[in-house]
Specification:
two-stranded antiparallel ribbon, mainly alpha, 12 helices, 2 strands, 226 residues
Length: 226
Amino acid sequence: MNKTKKILYSFLIILVIVMLGFAPAGEKVFALNWGNLGVKMVEAGVIDKEKFENLYNQRGGLSEADKKLFYSVDNGNLVINSENSGVMLNMLWAFGLSNKNSILESGPMMTYSDAGLPAEALAKAGNFASTGGWTLAKGNAMDHYNMHSFVTLISEQQTLLERVAKNIYRPCCDNSTYFPDCNHGMAMLGLMELMASKGSSEEEMYKMALEVNNLWFPKAETGCAV
């Protein structure tokens, strides 16, 4: 990102904070209807429930609230906080990776390597951390890349998503959400898609991105671990 863009982005962050009263100390980040999205991803194989649960069994196990995201078809508002931010990072990573969207189809994930034919570009897209690193699916992660229409955006929502995604950066690799080459970027793309689909405003989406990144990167940590 060049110096001018960084200055403009910093100004935008300050403006959003002033307008919406962002409080970094708050644990509750947002509420958004999750519905049966977890069930759909498990059924489609984007998330292998056994692999996912085994991973978290090594970390003390999933809470009942976390399990409900997989098992229940009537989840209400989804809350991300300091306790479940890691689980939600992975849930949103799976969603961002698999939900069909033109950002994945024709954006930097497909054009960054200057690959010529679509099949070659798709193969190279599987080498990014956000794709090759997703090992919790049934089959290969690229079997699900941009393959499932869990959420479909209308034209105005897609335009909003693309504008916002190009202006949200993450500290782990300094790339924008429009280029979701790591897990945090793919998860943020998924979150912004959900917000756009629910009619969130541009200001609300920027505010949410700031708050979620504050949880995903505590004390300016920059790693992209699962």
